[in-house]
Write a structure and sequence with these properties.
Elements (H helix, E strand, L loop, with lengths): L1 H11 L25 E3 L1 H11 L1 H23 L3 E19 L5 E21 L4 E17 L8 E19 L4 H68 L4 H36 L5 E3 L12 H11 L1 H22 L3 E14 L10 E2 L2 E7 L7 H67 L5 H36 L1 E2 L4 E2 L4 H6 L1
Parallel strand pairs: 1-6
Antiparallel strand pairs: 2-3, 3-4, 4-5, 5-7, 7-8, 7-9, 10-11
Length: about 500
């Protein structure tokens, strides 16, 4: 009777602890920081990643670079005002001079010159030419204008004015680079904006991965601690049973081996948890340890492939990139075809004046007109330009084929991902139910083992199933959130609020 009481008392020492679905999982292994761990929900983790992570800073830097490239392009289409001058130019030297009879001599030059010009230049994108308006003034003070015989006139001043001159420089029968750029550059900037939003969502995906990695590692540590505690108590029970002769020595050794394995698994789990704790802290740039909170719920949305594809084709950088590459391929073909000849028109219309006083230089103005047409036509190039044209056309055909293949892959990836997400809700529900059943089964098997109705192998099987079900539930929860943000990064659409993802670009650039 005394032995039976001792036996029952020993059985009663076996604890039963099962992880609850909404438990806060903190890291059992501290990362070296002091103070309480930072409790962090998934939404808070994503927000911190978008604000503090290095990947988010890199994405913002790329956006700023694209923004200023866009600003430079826009400024290039506006009138440009520039001032050019020489203040002053002093010359005092001897130079050669040819006289009227053809003989050469040297004359002494000693003069001071000043000049300044004001230009207003405007690029004409419809034609690809350049229109400029110029106004200039030149001043020359000649201290000694020596002739070959040595005579000269001291202190001579001269002014030459160009009150206004209008100049047109226009290439003829050539590709209009400005007109093509007006089609390409807006797409390039829109592509950069969409890429920034996509990279921001990818930062969220990286945060989700690290968050759930730590969550799983912390859960595995907690499971390992519970399993070790249970294994130690069961080993004590097995020893008591062995002393009473109710189990074999092999069962006792099996329980001891299970206890040693549990200790080894706990040490490995703690090491893994510490590494994942450090990874998440580094990514979020925080000093304290992080205690991730298991998400309570998930977005209750069902996605249609047609809706996701429509948003992706409208918003995604990949769709904009395909349109830009097609236009650039057409641009290369147009440039190669226009390279067969070069004809440039230069025309200037204006007035000029010359006097020894500044005021008189703007009177009695004379015409100052220039018209020049330059032409370059290759007569024999051994097929070089024809080869360049054919190569551009071949490259365009290659690009078109690549774009068609990429478009098909793009649609296929969206279809597969949409189906995976819609299926994931059911997978998560099954995983939650399996976790509940496995915990109840394990609890029942522990109680059954106390009275000797099942073997250690059956108990170990129930424990393994319980651990796998718990890990599986968290893994399915991770898959759901990861698929959700992956679809957001592709469609650039908030499926919960049913609105487009957007950021105040101007505000982000100026911060």
């Amino acid at each position: 009777m005394k032995a039976i009481l001792i036996f029952l008392a020993t059985f009663g020492m076996i604890p039963f602890a099962v992880a609850q679905p909404d438990t806060i999982i903190s890291s059992p292994m501290g990362g070296g920081s002091e103070g309480a761990p930072l409790r962090l929900t998934l939404d808070e983790c994503i927000t911190m990643a978008r604000c503090q992570s290095v990947d988010a800073a890199v994405a913002l830097g790329e956006l700023r670079s694209a923004y200023w490239q866009w600003r430079s392009y826009r400024a290039d289409l506006l009138p440009e005002v520039s001032l050019q001058g020489t203040l002053p130019s002093y010359n005092k030297r001897y130079s050669s001079y040819q006289q009227s009879d053809g003989s050469m001599t040297f004359v002494h030059n000693d003069y001071l010159g000043l000049n300044g010009s004001l230009y207003v230049t405007q690029k004409l994108w419809p034609t690809g030419g350049t229109l400029s308006v110029e106004s200039s003034l030149d001043y020359l003070h000649q201290s000694s204008n020596s002739s070959p015989t040595g005579g000269g006139r001291e202190g001579a001043n001269q002014f030459m004015s160009l009150p206004i001159a209008i100049t047109l420089s226009q290439p003829l029968f050539s590709v209009n680079h400005l007109k093509w750029n007006r089609r390409i550059e807006p797409l390039r900037y829109r592509e950069a904006q969409a890429r920034f939003l996509t990279e921001t969502e990818q930062v969220a995906m990286q945060a989700i991965s690290l968050f759930f990695n730590l969550l799983l590692a912390g859960e595995q540590v907690r499971i390992a601690e519970q399993n070790l505690q249970t294994a130690e108590k069961l080993y004590e029970v097995a020893q008591a049973k062995r002393r009473m002769g109710s189990i074999s020595e092999n069962d006792v050794l099996q329980m001891r081996l299970g206890m040693l394995n549990a200790r080894s698994h706990l040490a490995t789990s703690k090491s893994t948890c510490q590494a994942r704790q450090f990874a998440l802290r580094s990514f979020l740039d925080v000093e304290s340890d992080i205690a991730p909170v298991v998400p309570d719920d998930v977005p209750a949305v069902y996605l249609s492939f047609d809706d996701v594809l429509s948003h992706a084709l409208q918003n995604n950088a990949h769709a904009t990139t395909m349109r830009r590459r097609q236009i650039e391929a057409d641009y290369s073909v147009a440039a190669a075809r226009a390279n067969r000849q070069s004809i440039n028109l230069y025309a200037q219309v204006g007035y000029t004046g010359n006097a020894d006083k500044l005021g008189n230089a703007y009177r009695d103005l004379l015409g100052n007109d220039v018209v020049r047409v330059g032409i370059t036509v290759p007569l024999l190039d051994w097929g070089k330009r024809k080869g360049q044209r054919r190569m551009a056309e071949s490259n365009r055909d290659i690009v078109q084929g690549q774009l068609r293949q990429q478009a098909q892959n793009f649609r296929q990836d969206i279809f597969i991902l949409t189906e995976q997400f819609n299926n994931q809700a059911e997978q998560l529900r099954i995983a939650c139910e399996a976790d509940t059943i496995a915990r109840r089964r394990y609890h029942t098997n522990v109680e059954t083992f106390k009275i000797g109705s099942i073997s250690t192998l059956e108990l170990n099987d129930a424990q393994t199933a319980k651990d796998q079900a718990r890990i599986g539930r968290i893994q399915q929860l991770f898959n759901y959130w990861y698929y959700y943000y992956q679809l957001r990064s592709i469609a650039l659409w908030d499926f919960e609020r049913n609105c487009e993802l957007s950021e105040d670009i101007e505000k982000l650039i100026k911060e």
